[in-house]
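re: the backbone from monday

yeah here it is again, tokenized this time
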């Protein structure tokens, strides 16, 4: 009984902590590689190329070993759009934003995704909005709170919070340059959250029509790699920028390919099937804490008061949206159970011995 309970509750809990830690580690390594001179465009192309190569044998194995619906031109076009939104736009903007700001800001801004996804789901009529219901009010209020927190984090840095060592006094011009880069990074990360929400909506519709996650992930990486490579070759024309060096850049590429493209997708799919999307989403704010620790220790990032205040506001909005979604699903299950009970005909106990 104890082992069964651990497999049901303990393993998903441990796995999600590993996933969040690994995701922040991937962002931190990417930031370190870019600080070391690697182009964010080159980084995105290289790690997605390696991820596609790693996914290819699994795709071939499933393609010949399992029955699946036929691939249509409409599905291929959806895979193309998933790659365009999820890699060519999302990841390029994401790592540009991380380069201008920090992994802490990136992970905190990631908590905007459920709110933006909710707004897009309402626009595309994938989710209903009834302002008279408490659950809908909670989701709307949580979205507004989270967006307000993002504005605070982007536009207000505040005073420096010294954790381990005292920072040197920087010249005024350098401080102003850092402030402008911080705002630009926040804007790039906000665009990333919108792209991620659009990708979630399109992915949900695609999975419902073609329920084979590994095939979707492979084509998503395949098309996204080609699209980002074409764009990056047009923008990044310096041959030196494409040279791979045996340093932190290569470590970041390998880790992102193995973890981001292969492991994370598989684990997320397993946890979603076991515990549901609400449980998985509840671990998202944990990334802020991990990002602060890793960024401060390994990158020497500076922690500002605005990040703490804005991140706390975003977390409140995030959990408000999650509460509304969880409550709504609980009510829907209760209604379904009640309808099933009402439709069950009564048994005639007099006929039973």
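seq for it, each position gets an aa:
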């Amino acid at each position: 009984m104890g082992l069964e309970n651990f497999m049901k509750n303990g393993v998903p809990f441990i796995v999600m902590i590993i996933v969040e830690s690994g995701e922040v580690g991937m962002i931190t390594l990417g930031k370190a590689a870019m600080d070391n001179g690697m182009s964010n465009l080159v980084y995105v192309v290289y790690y997605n190329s390696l991820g596609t190569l790693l996914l290819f044998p699994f795709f071939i194995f499933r393609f010949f070993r399992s029955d699946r619906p036929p691939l249509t031109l409409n599905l291929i076009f959806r895979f193309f759009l998933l790659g365009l939104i999820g890699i060519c736009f999302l990841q390029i903007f994401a790592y540009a934003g991380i380069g201008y700001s920090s992994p802490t800001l990136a992970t905190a801004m990631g908590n905007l995704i459920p709110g933006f996804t909710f707004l897009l789901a309402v626009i595309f009529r994938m989710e209903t909005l009834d302002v008279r219901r408490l659950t809908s009010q909670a989701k709307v209020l949580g979205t507004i709170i989270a967006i307000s927190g993002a504005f605070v984090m982007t536009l207000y840095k505040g005073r420096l919070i010294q954790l381990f060592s005292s920072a040197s006094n920087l010249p005024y011009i350098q401080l102003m340059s850092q402030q402008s880069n911080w705002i630009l990074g926040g804007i790039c990360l906000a665009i990333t959250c919108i792209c991620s929400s659009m990708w979630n909506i399109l992915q949900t519709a695609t999975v419902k029509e073609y329920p084979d996650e590994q095939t979707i992930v492979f084509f998503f990486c395949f098309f996204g790699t080609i699209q980002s490579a074409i764009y990056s070759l047009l923008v990044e024309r310096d041959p030196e920028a494409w040279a791979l060096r045996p340093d932190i850049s290569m470590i970041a590429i390998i880790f992102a390919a193995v973890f981001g493209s292969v492991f994370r997708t598989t684990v997320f799919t397993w946890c979603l099937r076991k515990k549901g999307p609400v449980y998985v989403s509840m671990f998202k704010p944990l990334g802020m804490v991990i990002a602060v620790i890793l960024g401060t220790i390994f990158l020497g990032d500076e922690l500002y008061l605005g990040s703490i205040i804005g991140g706390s506001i975003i977390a409140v909005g995030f959990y408000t949206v999650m509460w509304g979604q969880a409550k709504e699903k609980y009510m829907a299950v209760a209604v379904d159970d009640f309808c099933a009970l009402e439709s069950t005909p009564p048994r005639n106990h007099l006929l039973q011995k």
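The chain has twelve helices and two strands. Residues 2-351 form one domain.
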